[in-house]
Amino acid sequence: MSSFTPTRDDKFSFGLWTVGWQGVDVFGPASRPLLDPVAATYTLAELGAAAVSFHDDDLLPDEHARESTLEQFGKALADTGLQAEMVTTNLFSHPVFKEGALTANSREVRRYAVAKLLRNVDLAASLGVETFVLWGGREGSEHGGKNVSAALDRYAESLNLLCAYVKEQGHQMRFALEPKPNEPRGDILLPTIGHALAFIGELEDPSMVGLNPEVGHEEMAGLNFAQGISQALWHDKLFHVDLNGQHGPRFDQDLRFGAGNLRGAFWTVDALLGGGGGRAYDGFVHFDYKPPRAEAIDGVWESARACMRNYLILRDKVQAFRADPDVSAALDAAEAHRLDEPTVGAGESLADLRAASYDVEALGQRSVGLEALDQLALEHLLGVR
To answer: What are the DSSP calls for 107-144, one per residue?
Structure first.
């Protein structure tokens, strides 16, 4: 259907590492040839993407070709009209980071990591990028040799240095932390949205740091992604978002969006649209997934196309759900609107609250009507409404 064909207004974005993943895993080497990131930019534009993102090592694996690659990449952006909307830094692949990057016990490793970040902040600024993501895949420990309090001190120190540098240089840029509970470390620092929100509150300039949550990362911890991003929106901290698919609390699968937990994907789109009266997300819809190792290059582009199509299909179903008169009636029956009422209203006091009489038995027997509401959502998702 033409309504499920992406346009630039949909603000879909892909990491160059996603379609560029060669299918390497712990049991086997690459199953696909290396994909040129500049060529990938042209193809993503043809598929309907509006933007791309990259790690420094995705775009610039060869420092000797740095200038020529950046020139070619800039030309690809100009030719296609795509935007480079997010940049991040690889602080996890090279063995130098095997025990951590910003929280490594080695002071020299930490200094190198910060220097690498500063170089890529400048690169991002030169491309007009306003969101810089930090994923601490090697920040953590499975042993007692890591002083967690000191590690968090160093983590905060690094964020404070980066924020100060951005302000000093006059860059228009914010940082987004990407939580993940485990893999590659057995236990990663800042493992969930909640942990990261608490950490941000301890920084020198919390306004400059927000979140880049990922579906699979939160679901690996058994958490509800839609509720998590709703809280991030409530804090005004959803600076960026990574969409993919995941089958429950296991290894990080990075399936195409819509695969895995389909109900979760439905409610995720609903949350991003501000469903139920919440704050809507207005940034890029970013896909961070990996085409299955079994696929050849045609399957890579088919999976990228499917990520966008699945989002548009789910958006259509979410909008139909929210516009359904039966859903409105079910929400009224569930008294959902009453949650907007303050528990202690204007002119009331705690003494009034304590003095009131409550029919506890009747309140305990009331109908909450949530099964009927959930069934309506499921029927919209199943396509029978």
So the answer is: HHHHHHHHHHHHHHHHHHHHTT--EEEEE-TT-B-SST
Residue in 56, 58, 252, 288 annotated catalytic = 58
1 pLDDT above the threshold of 80: no
Contacts of residue 162, defined as CB under 8 A and 6 or more positions apart, other chains included, come to 114, 117, 118, 121, 132, 175
Average model confidence (pLDDT) for the chain?
A: 97
| Token output for 329 | 């009636």
Asked if residue 97 lies in contact with residue 138, where contact means CB atoms within 8 angstroms, the answer is yes
CA distance 37 to 69: 9
* Contact residues for 201 (Cβ-Cβ < 8 A; gap 6+): none
Task: Select from 262, 310, 283 the least CA-distant residue to 4.
Answer: 310
Residue in 9, 25, 36, 55 annotated catalytic: 55
Rounded to an integer, what distance in angstroms lies between the CA atom of residue 177 and that of residue 195? 11
Residue 171's CB is within 10 A of a number of other CB atoms, namely 18
- Per the annotation, the verdict on 252 as an active-site residue is no
Single pTM value for the model: 0.96
Q: Which residue ranges form the domains of the chain, and what is each CATH number?
A: 2-315 (3.20.20.150), 325-382 (no CATH)
Cα 139 to Cα 78, 79, 119, 146, 280, distances in angstroms: 37, 39, 20, 10, 31
Cα separation, 19 vs 288, whole angstroms: 9
In this prediction, residues 306-334 reach a mean pLDDT of 97
Q: 């228009």: which residue's tokens? A: 172
Phi, then psi, of 374 in degrees rounded to 5? -65, -35
> 380 an active-site residue?
no
Residue in 160, 225, 165 with CA at minimum distance from that of residue 199? 160
Going by pLDDT thresholds of 50, 70 and 90, the confidence category of residue 200 is very high
Measured CA distances, 163 to 114, 169, 189, 236, 333 (Å): 12, 10, 20, 18, 48
Judged by DSSP in three states, 259 sits in coil
87 alpha-carbon distance from chain centroid:
13
Return the biggest CA–CA distance within the chain.
77
Rounded-to-integer distance, Cα 131 and Cα 172, Å:
9
